[in-house]
Amino acid sequence: MRAATSSSEVKSGGIALSNLQKRYGSAVAVSDVSLSISPGEFISLLGPSGSGKTTTLMMIAGFEMPDSGQVLLDGNDITRLPAHRRELGVIFQNYALFPHMTVAENVAYPLRMRRMAKSDVESRLRRILDQVHLGALASRYPHQMSGGQQQRVAIARALVFDPPVLLLDEPLGALDKKLRQHLRNEIKTLHKEVGKTMIYVTHDQDEALAMSDRVAVMHEGRIRQVSAPQDIYRKPTDLFVAGFVGEVNLIPAKIASGKLRSLAGETLPAPQWRGADGSATLCVRPEHLHLFKGVAGASEGIQGCLAAVTFVGDATVYEFRSQSGLQLTSKVLNVSAEQKLDLGDLCVASWAPNDATVLTE
Ligand SMILES: Nc1ncnc2c1ncn2[C@@H]1O[C@H](COP(=O)(O)OP(=O)(O)OP(=O)(O)O)[C@@H](O)[C@H]1O
């Protein structure tokens, strides 16, 4: 028999979005978004400004109604349910704490709204404040705390009523870089501890890659790819994703008889190609592109010369210009002080076949 719980049924936090569509006037903000999120998963919606991330999150939260499509929570259609009846935790960039309430009062607010018994409020409050390391600051007011501490209060307030899903809209956007990094680790740890489904909106690719089980990359209202962070970076399936996440060299190519050639006719190292002949773009990350000095006549790769060398601390960035005018970037970690290439050196740019991704439109 299932253990007795509070009034509502226990929810496990699985979310399914099915063909969600939202327009503002004639502008399409979200177009045909479908996504299945497992209970306990940490998923990021990543994309540039205006790509539809917040609108998607707001439709899950119930603050926006889709024009068509469905939002399911644990298999139940909640598309038309008002936000306050969805019982999902929501955290915004600007904390939205009540300035005249202490930390404890802010965090306890959702429980008081639900008319929870005072003793239960106290025990829940103590537990959640400990979890976000705010136990010692319970009687402070928001203006007496740093931005990072205020954001922790907002997280505690969203978690205190034990929602199955936490929706976070750029929660670290207002903080400086060091604090962002610190808090993203804290949120990740908290995610492991509480095991809630977390849906995290960000335009910061490092944040999305570092925190998520999966990343959904959005562009112009559509999801372009949903994959584990490693696959988003190593195996982009879409030109927008390849260019948006990390740095990449994009080399226009032609495929003939399964072989890839640059437009200047050079043979390009690439994984075995089994698709149709035609045009393609070969993607190779700067850290995978190697420059070999003076090997004119090499059987694979692109010939050219070194156009710029930039020392960036942990690495050196080499700008290479091919004989046909292509500009490519190679990044080499500075493991020794030795620099093997000089400006103007003739060299061949090449890479391991499996480090390249071939994309066709
Ligand atoms: N209330 C609104 N009225 C009119 N247009 C809107 C409204 N909300 C969003 N939009 C438009 O819908 C599109 C998607 O906006 P959305 O806020 O979802 O993008 P986003 O990816 O979250 O961007 P950002 O990172 O800048 O917040 C944008 O073109 C935006 O201008």
In short:
With 361 residues, the protein is α+β, with helices and mostly antiparallel strands. The chain has helices spanning 53-61, 103-113, 118-131, 147-159, 177-194, 205-211, 229-234, 239-244; strands at 15-24, 27-37, 42-46, 68-73, 76-77, 89-91, 165-169, 197-202, 214-219, 222-227, 249-256, 259-262, 278-284, 290-293, 302-311, 315-322, 327-333, 346-350, 356-359.
Give a verbal description of the structure:
By secondary structure, the protein is α+β, with helices and mostly antiparallel strands. 23% of the residues lie in helices and 32% in strands. It contains eight helices and 19 strands. The chain has a six-stranded mixed beta sheet, with helices on both faces. The chain has a five-stranded antiparallel beta sheet with strand order 14-18-15-16-17, with no helix packed on it. Strands 2-1-4-5 form a four-stranded antiparallel beta sheet, covered by helices on one side. Adenosine-5'-triphosphate (ATP) is lined by residues 24, 27, 29, 47, 49-55, 203. Adenosine-5'-triphosphate (ATP) binds at residues 24, 27, 29, 47, 49-55, 203.
CATH class of the largest domain: Alpha Beta
Beta strands, count: 19
Mean pLDDT: 90
Shape summary = elongated
Cα Rg: 25 Å
Bound molecules: adenosine-5'-triphosphate
CATH superfamily of the largest domain: P-loop containing nucleotide triphosphate hydrolases
Largest sheet: 6 strands, mixed
- What is the count of distinct domains? 2
Can you tell me the CATH topology of the largest domain?
Rossmann fold
**What is the helix fraction of residues, given as a range?**
10-25%
CATH architecture descriptor text of the largest domain: 3-Layer(aba) Sandwich
Helix tally? 8
Task: Report how far the terminal alpha carbons are from each other.
Answer: 54 Å
**What is the spatial order of strands in the main beta sheet?**
6-7-8-3-9-10
Low-confidence segments: 1-8
Strand content: 25-35%
Report the structural category: alpha+beta
Order of helices and strands: EEEHEEEHHHEHEHEEHHEEEEEEEEE
